[in-house]
Amino acid sequence: MARRPLERRPLHRQIADRLRTEIVGQHEVGTRLPSEAALAERFDVSLVTVREALSALAQAGLLERRHGSGTYVAGHAADRHVAIVIEMDLGANQVPFFQFQVVRHLESCLVEAGCPARLYVGSTPPGSRAGTSTSAKAVLEALAAGVVSGLILFSTRATPDLVQAAAAAGVPIVGDDPGALAHT
Fold first, then answer.
1. Cα–Cα distances in Å, from 137 out to 28, 107, 130, 142?
2. Could you give the domains of the chain?
3. Taking the model in full, what pTM does it have?
């Protein structure tokens, strides 16, 4: 196999990106990847660099590392994503420009880091309790399906249901509001 020159980014990110493309496009769930040594030889890098790349992909939920057995393609690999949740005020009838810009920047940073992102936009009618919007329901379904690798709450609050579902799935949650994670 011919080697392609690597770019001016950390080697482990470049390798992770190439492996991600292969995993999502060519490998089925449960497929065993070549050994770390074979990957190091293939990419002409050190074992440490390969381990960093594999660890990043495992953290993103694309791979499962089994001690003494190898590295395998995880279930739902093509669908795994970081969920960005934002709630709209129905009275405003639009997402404020600043919020829109922040969310777009978050998405681009995540994609650049090799973490696919999905935006969940919902609206909560005035007087409704937080977490009853369509976005909260969709995120709960995605958590139950095992396709969410991280949860970013922007201008919304975490509900006990959401926190419990994320904890059960081992999914980290971050938010922009100090009170957003009051239930954690």
1. 29, 21, 11, 9
2. 11-73 (1.10.10.10), 81-175 (3.40.50.2300)
3. 0.55
